[in-house]
From TrEMBL:
The gene is Guca1c. This is GUC1C protein. CDD domains: EFh. InterPro entries: EF-hand-dom_pair, EF_Hand_1_Ca_BS, EF_hand_dom, Recoverin. The keyword Aminoacyl-tRNA synthetase does not apply. It holds the Pfam family EF-hand_1.
């Protein structure tokens, strides 16, 4: 289809167009509900823990908190996951773990989110308890059983193995692949 094919380069416009047409095809109203979000990612029928995690991800992407993800919020989320700098991603992860929004992550919050992610990704090099204890052991500097944003970012940036583990276990790129390539309809 020669003429209107753009040269691969740094121009983000064709990519945006691709995402826009995909978004509108999957979501003609332009407003993605939690139910549609799960459907888009092929994540219906998860166990309760998996559901909690997907709801948290959805809530964080829903920047204006209206219960829907619109196209701009969708693009902001994709940009963060693909192009975000490491401290932006860590802030995002922190928000994801801080379930009650009090600005600190406690062991229970980290445990429940990690267990939920394991339920979806099937990633199980270690149990949720082992993972949580290891994180707190390494980065809870003042041993108060809570991690502040600062402790979290500094701690993870200091320990490359933690950075790798967190990135691997909370990797959303498989979610984006689904969005980019479309759902594989298994029959």
């Amino acid at each position: 289809m020669g003429a209107n094919e753009s040269m691969p380069g740094n121009d983000p416009v064709p990519e945006m167009h691709h995402y826009y047409s995909k978004f509108m095809r999957e979501c003609p109203s332009g407003q993605l509900s939690l139910h549609e979000f799960k459907k888009l990612l092929g994540l219906q029928g998860l166990d309760p823990q998996g559901d909690v995690y997907i709801k948290r991800v959805f809530d964080i992407f829903d920047l204006n908190k209206d219960g829907f993800i619109d196209f701009l919020e969708f693009i902001a989320a994709i940009n963060l996951v693909i192009r975000g700098k490491i401290d932006q991603k860590l802030k995002w992860y922190f928000k994801l773990y801080d379930a009650d929004g009090n600005g600190c992550i406690d062991k229970k919050e980290l445990l429940s989110i990690f267990a939920a992610i394991q339920a979806i990704n099937g990633y199980a090099d270690m149990t949720a308890e082992e993972f949580t204890n290891m994180i707190f052991q390494k980065i809870d500097v003042n041993n108060d059983g809570e991690l502040t944003l600062e402790e979290f970012i500094n701690g993870v940036e200091k320990h490359e193995d933690l950075m790798e583990l967190i990135t691997k276990s909370f990797d959303l790129s498989n979610v984006l692949k689904v969005i980019q390539n479309g759902r594989r309809h298994s029959i």
